[in-house]
Amino acid sequence: MVLFTALLINTAIALATASLYWDGRVPQTMTESDLDSSIGPYLTVVKGSEDASHYTTLLGTDSTPTPLWSSVVSEQVVSLTITNSSIFVPGGSTPQNGFRRTDLIAQGNGSNSALDAIMEVGVSKFYFSVQENEHLPLNYSHEYQIVFIEPSDGTHVFELQLGTPFSNPSTTELAADARFLKVRDHALNLLFETPFTAGQWHNFAVQVDWKNLTLQVFYSTGGAELVAVTSVAPNPTAAIGSAGQGDFHAALLKLPLVDPSEPATEQNDVAHYGIQEGTTEGLFYSGLFVEQVLV
Ligand SMILES: *[C@@H]1O[C@H](CO)[C@@H](O)[C@H](O)[C@H]1NC(C)=O
Ligand SMILES: *[C@@H]1O[C@H](CO)[C@@H](O)[C@H](O)[C@H]1NC(C)=O
Ligand SMILES: *[C@@H]1O[C@H](CO)[C@@H](O)[C@H](O)[C@H]1NC(C)=O
Ligand SMILES: *[C@@H]1O[C@H](CO)[C@@H](O)[C@H](O)[C@H]1NC(C)=O
């Protein structure tokens, strides 16, 4: 089911919203050295060889976060960048030469997995806002995965995606909706898409029912209130229970294009093979938090 912008769904059953499970809105007191030490709401280990603050910067009072929550909190815009050195090497494992990535992973009391077990039960709502970094543009010939919940099998409960989806063989031709922000479900079906217009915040919330396995997407721009842009959609391929729980990432994760000179058996291994131009690129984030939804 594909639903385009500004489709207002009458949510007949009003869901009462309760407590905040996790708040990733970066306070003005947080510093880049906190980022380097993974102190605060984010685990910052998924990145290239430099310090976390080489890739992720906090913009202080110089930059305006989404106006949606400015009456509630004073937060800093978070700037995520990738460079050609943004090759993540998972502990003792093969470098991810196919990707360029900088990820922020939600954590509580210094633990991402403990937080997942707390916030990924019942019904919970994941909030995030993104804005283009016009000085460090993305390359829309590539696929980018920019917000997702990743269980240990590497799938995504849902994801926010940009660009031209990875395909083998690759083409440098842009997908018609390459410059659209796309919310996809666990099976990568498109639930909602909207143009990634410049110079404004794009606000999202995705409500996840962890037991009934459904998703509902909410969206707005700037300071406008979030509205439901899909109905409650089934997400049946996601797993129930702890196998379905995973880390909540805000990421600049750039997939490669296929390099036809590499062995055919490796060409679909996007984490380790393929073409990257090595460009420096960026995105802005704010308004990240997770709420419990009482039903
Ligand atoms: C963090 O610690 C507090 C106090 O012990 C506890 O209530 C909370 O559930 C913990 N959160 C996580 C994510 O472990
Ligand atoms: C974007 O990626 C394509 C595919 O690799 C490449 O041909 C093109 O030169 C890149 N553009 C920039 C500006 O790096
Ligand atoms: C979950 O599904 C059950 C059975 O279909 C239904 O009664 C219940 O209302 C659903 N819960 C939510 C939150 O939609
Ligand atoms: C990017 O890094 C890769 C891997 O280290 C290297 O092979 C490649 O030459 C670099 N590209 C540029 C443009 O620096």
From TrEMBL:
The keyword Signal applies. Keywords: Signal. The keyword Signal applies. It comes from the Eukaryota. Residues 1-18 form the signal peptide. Gene3D superfamilies: 2.60.120.1160. Residues 21-292 form the Glycoside hydrolase 131 catalytic N-terminal domain. PANTHER family: GH131_N DOMAIN-CONTAINING PROTEIN (PTHR34612), GLYCOSIDE HYDROLASE 131 CATALYTIC N-TERMINAL DOMAIN-CONTAINING PROTEIN (PTHR34612:SF2). This is Glycoside hydrolase 131 catalytic N-terminal domain-containing protein. It comes from Lentinula lateritia. The lineage of its organism: Eukaryota, Fungi, Dikarya, Basidiomycota, Agaricomycotina.
